[in-house]
Design a protein that fits this description.
heterotrimer; A alpha+beta (about 200); B mainly alpha (about 525); C alpha+beta (about 375); A: alpha+beta; 5-stranded mixed beta sheet; flat; disordered C terminus; B: mainly alpha; 16 helices; EC 7.1.1.9 (chain B); Cytochrome c oxidase subunit 1 (chain B)
Chain lengths: ~200, ~525, ~375
């Protein structure tokens, strides 16, 4: 008498447990749409089609590393003024301050959050894991443009990179080693599961 | 419990007494036994969690660090929260459901009695694990009952696995309990007990049970992610691997907000039972009560992010969650208005259950008001994570959920034990609790508004006076609850024998059986017209 | 309960009458920005609405409780539903909410203003201090609780600003739009200054932003609002708002001070200090930076923070000890102090640890040795 109902309820429970995990990719989609946390697609953008010469937006750069992370990355310019739609280039100087070869992963974040989806990057060191030899210095180029659709009331935005040392995770196998250019949002959706933390 | 002591006159063919001894309790599949176990367990947990609150209040009595170190203080706030939510309030409601739902719908027992036994008996193990972790090296969980990552992952100690395991067991227990409630209500109503004739306590519990099976698995998912992040190298909540710590809060509060209603909807049911009894008048707006409860439950799924306005949300999100949250106050208001309308032109008397119910209505409404204030996003930026929030949810959970449980206990104790409780003790318990609970929680609004953050072991000097008052209120409220323990055990031991219909204004099938309720009731379904 | 409500009224009415910016001990602060004023007004409006609704509902209820008592011989009426009444008391609260939502929405939109700012400050939370960086100005510093441990332990009388004081407050100009970018090194923190109505979480890996435009000069105090571990209660925020002119002077001085500090660092390399001097410096630094976790007794917290007494690192090879202090230990709460402390301070605290609580290495470490270690790791290039 109770079996049919019981089965349905148990299935609901299992379904909701799965739903908790489904929230992970759903959350990423949600972030993409709303710009929550200033999360940026790790996707190579297409070139812009037009330029809005009527206004300029100030884009500033900052990088952040925990005191224990052995990387220093600094934009050569603190900020640039750009016209929406126009392609810009900014150079970053990166250093591995440790005595051993390390792999760096930069995680981008844009503020204000609603501007995140209007900042398009054509080339960025954050697309890939960056292996850096002991005490090496490298120069990275960021190529980006701001979408002409950017809301008018956003007059300045900041692109921040948080630097992580993922060497241990890569060696432990928690993170896929082959650096890859992510070309589809699908991969970034899967990322929390395929990749690992920096301290294994 | 005292059903063992008194053999009931055999009115139906199957009736026999309970087996005796420890085995009776371990192997019991009787809904009344299991209900008693749940209730006694929750009382024990209420006292345990209360003892931790006493530690917290003692440390906060004066500025400066006196008794415990900050790490232990954090363990106390964390475990106090976990125990009160999962150990005291939820099992108490499950206990009431076990005892009363079969009797209210005219069923002989719960639908799945063996599972019922399991769902109770795994609970003590869950809490034993949680409490044991306090005594291990590194201590118990110290990241708040909300266990925000990465404080609970990268930055927690190794005992976190015990916390995760304990929460899993608690979750499994409540899911089994909820399934049992649903199957019982759907399949085992007596003939003629149509949906719109269900007692409101049964209705609210049915809706609560659906909330439970919808969100407890999500909590299980969240703790599982914490576990794999901490021990197995995933990074759901770690930006380095593509995760996001804010996502934790979204998942947690997707569980957490409905959880709040899990702890208050059965309370609405209890108050809707008690107020008509002592007003000697039918509940006003039965149907609207059912609809209001359902809409509260549904809305509870779309307001979760009002707990996280400060995490940095897009404007549209902030507006949506603000409006949705404000909307919840409408059905909640309807309930309060209905209770007042029930009392209006009734013939009211003030027995202890009614006193608690009236205190509930006033004080819960107060908690509702501060909830409405918290919904106003710009103001929430100031209220968030201060003692104003602590005041708010303690008004809702202590003078709300806990007072309703007390009301229910006084209301049904004569039915359970066959004896009336000691009126004198009960009066003392009520009045001391009422006064002290307000001395305890009311000034928290003030310190919160003045800027005292929650979960701090020490505070700036301008908060000192109010904190001393709060602590005194806390000690008084804590001690008053020992009176409740005395009332309960005295009532089990003996007292003036109770009639089968204990309260003259009471309605419902549970009052058709003898007091104390025989070990088996409604083996033959009653006729409901 | 009605009593409590009345009490509330009595407290708030005089306040309402005098809309002055009283720093109240029992109400929300009006604060010193336009936004914080708007928030305060919202708070008072919604509060009054609640009071009025409460007064009406409870009056009706208590009327019934007094007059419709059985002991007075009341006979219960028979009514138990009325669709009309139900609709009315669903509609009225709904309309009140709509009225309330309008100003709330306006304020919220004002708070999310993304126009250009005059100054951007990056605020980084870490266990358990704040770090401020003036973006584009090359000035940055840590801001740490300055209340002495003895006051916390009740061995000394407590100051007026007990637990709400720091060694270096954040200095900002008044009448300018200051934008804060918030992030965290470890767990989630929340930067809160009640007088600005600014509370924003600092999330590790991501940035958040908030802004303020302060109308009055003064010192404003707040605290971390999000549970961030053991010393969550001990990481205050202190902001010193100065006139734009004074701020410019301060900023210029801060830049000079930074240059001087660099010189002093360079000079300290050649200095040889006595063991007593190093032990004295070391003890001070240990109590300020290390004791929160490793405890003043050096015993740590078993299972959470390692003990210094008898520690293998502290009693072992010197280079490893310097390394952990300068570079930290990734994946744990042990931060890198290389940039937070001066060479002398590092030398002092290492000397102190290696010769206290029964640790007896007799080693004396000089600032030059620390510099040599740092150079050593760089020279390998």
């Amino acid at each position: 008498m109770h079996t049919a109902l019981l089965q349905k309820l148990v299935l609901t429970v299992l379904g909701m447990f799965a739903f908790a995990f489904a929230l992970v990719p759903l959350y990423d989609v949600f972030c993409d749409i709303t710009g929550l946390n200033g999360k940026v697609d790790l996707v190579v953008a297409q070139k812009s089609e037009g330029v809005d010469a009527s206004r300029e937006v100030e884009v500033s750069f900052t990088t952040h590393a925990k005191s224990t992370t052995p990387f220093k990355v600094k934009a050569l310019q603190y900020s640039v003024s750009v016209q929406p739609g126009k392609l810009s280039e900014v150079k970053f100087l990166a250093q591995n301050t440790s005595d051993s070869a390390r792999i760096m992963q930069a995680i981008p974040s844009v503020s204000p959050g609603q501007a995140a989806k209007y900042l398009h990057k054509l080339a960025c060191f954050c697309f890939d894991q960056q292996p850096m030899a002991a005490n090496a210095s490298l120069e990275f180029t960021l190529r980006f443009y701001v979408d002409t659709e950017l809301p008018k009331d956003v007059q300045e935005l900041t692109l921040s990179y948080t630097l992580y040392d993922i060497t241990e995770s890569v060696t432990a196998g928690n993170i896929e080693q082959t650096p890859q250019v992510l070309t589809q949002p699908f991969i970034s959706v899967m990322s929390p599961i395929v990749r690992g933390p920096q301290n294994g | 419990m005292s059903t063992t002591a008194q053999e009931q006159p055999v009115s139906h063919e199957h009736h026999h007494g309970a087996p005796s001894g420890l085995k009776r309790w371990i192997f019991t599949t009787n809904h009344k036994d299991i209900g008693s176990l749940y209730l006694l367990f929750s009382l024990l947990m209420f006292l345990t969690g209360g003892a931790m609150a006493m530690v917290i209040r003692a440390e906060l009595f004066q500025p400066g660090m006196q008794l415990v170190d900050p790490h232990f203080f954090n363990q106390m706030t964390t475990v106090h929260g976990l125990i009160m939510v999962f150990g005291a309030v939820m099992p108490a409601f499950t206990g009431l459901a076990n005892w009363m739902i079969p009797m209210m719908i005219g069923a002989p027992d719960m639908a799945l009695p063996r599972m019922n036994n399991w769902s109770f008996w795994i609970l003590p193990f869950a809490f034993a694990i949680l409490l044991a972790s306090l005594f291990m090296e590194g201590g118990g969980p110290a990241f708040g009952w909300t266990f925000y990552a990465p404080l609970s992952t990268t930055y927690s100690n190794d005992n976190t696995a015990l916390f995760v395991f304990a929460v899993h067991i608690m979750g499994v227990s409540s899911i089994m309990g909820a399934i049992n409630v649903i199957v019982t209500i759907v399949n085992m109503r007596a003939p003629g007990m149509t949906w719109m004739k269900l007692p409101l306590f049964v209705w609210t519990w049915l809706i609560t049970a659906f909330l439970l099976i919808a969100v407890m698995p999500v909590l299980a998912g969240a703790v599982t992610m914490v576990l794999t992040d901490k021990y197995f190298g995933t990074s759901f909540f770690d930006a380095a691997g593509g995760g996001d710590p804010v996502m934790f809060q979204h998942i947690f509060w997707f569980f957490g907000h409905p959880e709040v209603y899990i702890m208050i909807l059965p309370a609405f049911g209890i108050i809707s039972t008690i107020v008509p009894t002592f007003s000697r008048k039918k509940l006003f707006g039965y149907a609207s009560m059912v609809y209001a409860t359902s809409s509260i439950a549904l809305l509870s799924f779309v307001v979760w992010a009002h707990h996280m306005f400060t995490t940095g949300m897009p404007l549209a999100g902030e507006l949506f969650f603000m409006y949705a949250t404000m909307l919840i106050s409408v059905p909640t208001g309807v309930k309060v208005f209905n209770w007042v309308a029930t009392m209006w032109r009734g013939a009211i008397s003030f027995e202890i259950p009614m006193m608690f119910a009236i205190a509930f209505i006033v004080l819960f409404t107060l908690g509702g008001f501060s909830g409405l204030m918290l919904a106003i996003t710009p103001a929430d930026f100031q209220y968030h994570d201060t003692y104003f929030v602590v005041a708010h949810f303690h008004y809702v959970l202590v003078t709300g959920a806990v007072f309703s449980i007390m009301a229910a206990a006084y209301y049904w104790l004569p039915k359970w034990t066959g004896n009336m409780y000691s009126e004198t003790l009960a009066q003392w318990h009520f009045w001391l609790s009422l006064v002290s609970v307000n001395v305890l929680f009311f000034p928290m609004h003030f310190v919160g508004l003045a800027g005292m953050p929650r979960r701090i072991p020490d505070y700036a000097l301008q908060f000192a006076d109010f904190n001393a008052i709060i602590s005194i209120g806390g000690f008084a409220f804590g001690l008053s609850q020992l009176l409740f323990v005395a009332v309960v055990f005295k009532c089990i031991a003996g007292g003036k024998p109770a009639d089968s219909k204990v309260w003259d204004g009471a309605e419902g099938l549970e009052w058709q059986v003898a007091s104390p309720a025989p070990y088996h009731t409604f083996s033959t379904p009653p006729k409901v017209d | 309960m009605n009593l409590a409500n009345l009490k509330l009224f009595n407290i708030f009415v005089p306040l309402l009458a005098s809309f002055s910016a009283v720093a109240s001990d029992y109400n929300m602060r009006q604060g010193v920005t336009d936004v914080s004023n708007e928030v305060y007004q919202l708070h008072m409006t919604i509060f009054l609405i609640c009071c009025v609704i409460g007064a009406i509902v409870f009056s009706v209820m208590f009327w019934a409780l007094i007059h419709h008592r059985k002991s007075k011989g009341a006979e219960p009426a028979q009514f138990h539903e009325s669709t009309k009444v139900e609709i009315v008391w669903t509609a009225i609260p709904f309309l009140i909410l709509v009225v309330m939502a309008i100003p709330a929405t306006k304020t919220l939109i004002a708070m999310e203003d993304t126009s250009k700012s005059d100054l951007t400050i990056k605020v980084t939370g870490s266990q358990w201090k704040w770090h401020y960086e003036y973006m584009g100005h090359d000035v940055d510093f840590f801001s740490v609780l300055s209340t002495p441990k003895d006051q916390i332990d009740n061995l000394q009388a407590k100051d007026e600003h007990y637990l709400l004081e720091v060694d270096k407050p954040l200095v900002i100009p008044t009448d300018r739009k200051v934008r804060f970018l918030l992030t965290s090194d470890d767990v989630i923190h929340s930067w809160w200054v009640p007088d600005f109505a600014v509370k924003k979480d600092a999330n590790p890996g991501f940035i958040n932003e908030a802004w303020t435009r302060v109308n009055e000069q003064g010192i404003y105090r707040g605290q971390c609002a999000e549970l961030c571990g053991k010393d969550h209660g001990f990481m205050p925020v202190v902001v010193d708002a100065r006139s734009p002119e004074d701020f410019d002077i301060w900023l210029a001085e801060a830049k000079q001070a930074k240059a001087k500090a660099l010189q002093a660092e360079a000079a300290s390399v050649g200095v040889t200090l006595s063991k007593d001097e190093l032990m004295a410096t070391g003890e001070k630094v240990y109590m300020a930076y290390c004791a929160a976790c490793h405890q003043p007794t050096g015993l740590g917290l078993p299972g959470v923070f390692p003990a210094m007494k008898g520690s293998a690192v502290v009693n072992g090879e010197l280079k490893a000890h310097i390394d952990i202090l300068v570079n930290g230990r990734p994946g744990t709460a042990m931060q890198a102090f290389g940039k937070q402390l001066t060479l002398t301070e590092i030398a002092g605290v290492i000397t102190y640890k290696r010769n206290s609580w029964g640790n007896d290495t007799q080693e004396v470490v000089q600032p030059g040795q620390i510099q040599a270690f740092i150079d050593g790791t760089k020279e390998k290039e």
